[in-house]
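User: My collaborator sent over this chain with a note saying "see what the structure looks like." That's all I know about it. Can you take a look?
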Amino acid sequence: MIKRWVFSPPNKPLQAEIASRLKISPLLAHVLISRGIVDVASARSFLQPQIGALGDPSLLPDIEKASIRIREAIRKGEKIVIYGDYDVDGLSATALMYRCLKLVDAQVGYYIPERLEEGYGLNADAIKKLKEGGANVILTVDCGINACREADIARTYGIDLIITDHHRPGQEIPNAFAVVNPKLHAAHHVFRDLSGVGIAFKLAWAIGQHFSPQKKVSLEFKDFLLSAVGLVALGTIADVVPLRGENRIITRYGLSALQHTEIPGLRALLDAADLSSTNLDAFHVGYRLGPRLNAPGRIGKAGIVVELLTTTCKERAMEIANFLEQENKRRQEIQVDIMASARKKVMHELNLDETAAIVLADQAWHPGIIGIIASKIVEEFNRPTVMIAVSDDIGHGSARSIPAFHILEALEGCKNKLLSVGGHAQAAGLKIHPDNIDEFREMLNSMTSQRLCKTDLVPVLNIDAEVTLSMLSKALVTELARLAPYGEGNPVPLFAATKLKIVGQPRRIGSKGQHLSFYVRQGDVAIRAVAFGMGEQMDRIKQNGRACSLAFTVKINNWMDSEQLELEVKDVKFDNE
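Assistant: Without extra context I'll predict from the sequence alone. Here is the result:
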């Protein structure tokens, strides 16, 4: 698919000032500016994130009320149940709060709904079950902000419901005992993009303050929080919230905490993923650890993940970690089949020239996997996508979108065709009656066509800077690493170089020849380039001496005790095409 290259405009005076004041290269200064970091103080705090810069938890709405009620419940010996979610954010938040409340001798349990039987969030049957089990307080993590009916039910049962959530509130706010959400009536200086586990961390911090003589938490609680930040990094990265502001601080410190963790479940997970001796980065969490933790919730029961993250038994931890390994392999096998089926539908049933939003449905699809597939379809075809797994009289849908389109707002505009909907700007979930799918597809396509133009459907590569090959070095790669951890809102720096010549003999690499390896030269400098997934473009590239432009990231390839500069190609444009 043709991609549109969008270059960040240079600001030479600001670039020079930031580079001079912070003693960094002009190129790093330019990359910072391209990310909206446009003053020296902001650049300094971005490059040197400090855990002391995290906002005080008391700034979050209702958090004082919530922590005081929890302290009262602990003092009275009341039963607190943490009600979580089945994704990594919700599971890590549940584990964090459970460990926190155990630390202060609370009577505490947890409840994770089953994806297929109960769906996302609070439900009336679960509340009734928890009441019968003696719950006095239900504390939600990563869910509940739109559970208005369920909040009323909890109140009729005499349960104090404390909601902590990071999803966007609806027009009506649940009538709960406390609602902790930074997107809700928060002061302008409150960081609004925390993950569910990020908010749980703030509540744990507030609880620690209430159990300490001064506002400063005790040494024991401080050690707990510094350890727990590893769990926060897990959920924050896996939930794809922007890695800016407080999320950047949490992730930077959390990755280190994760690497050196003494939590048996995390150690077992790292061992099972063969990451125990690796310098962890956001990629390892997002693509190695996250999928393993998500697997049971997608195709089975997610509660076992909380057991993994809270057990003190090393043998049990390793047993669960090995189980997650097998579940993840099973998830991968199911995913391959669904992806092939979805691609076939797109290629044979849709006219992409007339399709602004892709809506696919099938009775054979597993509802726990379709969110992953929706993301991959968006990546390949650059259109908002809804995947629907149909079973009996209900369709479970997962929606993913492109940057230019707010999928949740669009789905809310189709509410009369849906049974339920919730989520974010780029990812959402829904339920629909199978009879309404065709009308829903037409409605969403019509809405998408009105809001998007043709250029929006062309994938964009946001280029941080145009460079020459002579500007690239191992020292530069090391300096650029100060921008990590990478993720949503802070991608790996992307560069472009023009007037390059392909030299030597390009070759296909990989087990199936699916990748390309070739050299490009500019003046006296030649560097190896690797183009993953571009093996089929061999004929375009193999003409020796052909002029081209590349969009790429730059890295150091460590191979056979040798360090070589390497370009990882994201797109190629030829001068004569």
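A starting point for your reply to your collaborator: The chain has three domains: 56-324, 350-457, 461-574.
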